[in-house]
Amino acid sequence: MAISGIIQFHSASGARSHPYQLDPFIAGSGTEWNRVGFFGSTGPGSFVTVSTYQDTTYACNESGIAPNIGVNVYSGILQNLKYVNSASVNPNGSGSVALTTITLPDATLRVRFTNPSGTAVQTQNAKILCVQLGATSGVASESALVSGITVQVFEVAVDSAWTQISQTGTNSKNLGARATNSIIHDFHLGISVSPINTGEKKDFAFLFKLEYL
Questions:
Q1: Is 205 exposed, middle or buried (0-12, 13-18, 19+ CB in 10 A)?
Q2: Please, are residues 11 and 20 in contact by the beta-carbon 8 Å criterion?
Q3: Half-sphere exposure in the Cβ direction for 155 (13 Å, CA)
Q4: Contact partners, residue 71, CB within 8 Å, separation at least 6
Q5: Minimal CA–CA distance to 192: which of 104, 103, 65, 93?
Q6: Three-class DSSP labels, 126-194
Q7: Nearest CA to 105 among 10, 18, 14, 9?
Q8: I want to staple 123 with a disulfide (CB 3.0 to 4.6 A). Which of 8, 70, 97, 178 is the partner?
Q9: Rounded to an integer, what distance in angstroms lies between the CA atom of residue 64 and that of residue 59?
Q10: What contacts 85, CB < 8 A, 6 or more positions away?
Q11: Nearest one of 8, 12, 19 to 73, comparing CA atoms
């Protein structure tokens, strides 16, 4: 029998919107602030040029609108990690640095696993996937490869290079095991996205999986 734990997506601790929780995602809930938006330099409403990567990242709704933008610290602003090359990143427009210099508070997202039984566990075979959404915002298959965008991911404080999880024949990135017993395990991810062609891109989602024991 499969037993599910609790998996939540949050802004990282260094983001202005911390500790904003992006989920639960509900299909058809277009007004909820449970999406991640990748935008141009002026944030929501600005576009990312084809074959370049985003300059800003926000928690937003289906229409690309961030909560209370410009009003307070809970404006949906996430840490922006812009892909430069396989081993380099530009954090929040500050200039190119090595991926290995990025710290946990700098992550785009913190994915938190909690064992609902309250028992301390270890984790293994964790992975982040980028999956294609169907017309009803559902996932027809976990292996449904996203097209039309380039999605790059790395695990903060673990990886020294980005991994592409779209357009490549694979849509997943393996994450490090957590060998220390704990009720809660966090995974910090850097994410960067580039459009391959023109048009709004919102028919994809991030899926997180792991085993615990």
A1: middle
A2: yes
A3: 17
A4: none
A5: 93
A6: EEEEEEECCCCCCCCCCCCECCCEEEEEEECCCCCCCEECCCCCCCEEECCCEEEEECEEEEEEEEEEE
A7: 14
A8: 178
A9: 9
A10: none
A11: 19
The number of beta carbons lying within 10 Å of the beta carbon of residue 147 is: 14
Per-residue pLDDT band at 24 (split at 50, 70, 90): low
Of 193, 190, 208, 17, nearest to 103 by C-alpha is 190
**SS3 sequence of 105-131:** HHCCEEEEEECCCCCCEEEEEEEEEEE
The CA distance from 6 to 112, in Å, is 8
Give the residue, 189 or 27, on which the prediction is more confident: 189
Q: Can the peptide bond before residue 24 be classed as cis, meaning omega within 30 degrees of 0?
A: yes
pLDDT tens across 146-203, in order? 989 999 999 999 999 999 999 988 899 999 999 999 999 999 999 999 999 999 998 8
Can you tell me which residue has the tokens 């229409």? 63
Rounded to 5 degrees, φ, ψ at 153 are: -140, 145
The whole-angstrom separation of Cα 73 and Cα 199 is: 30
Q: For the chain, what percentages of helix, strand and coil (3-state, to nearest 5) are there? A: 5, 40, 55
pLDDT of residue 19: 83
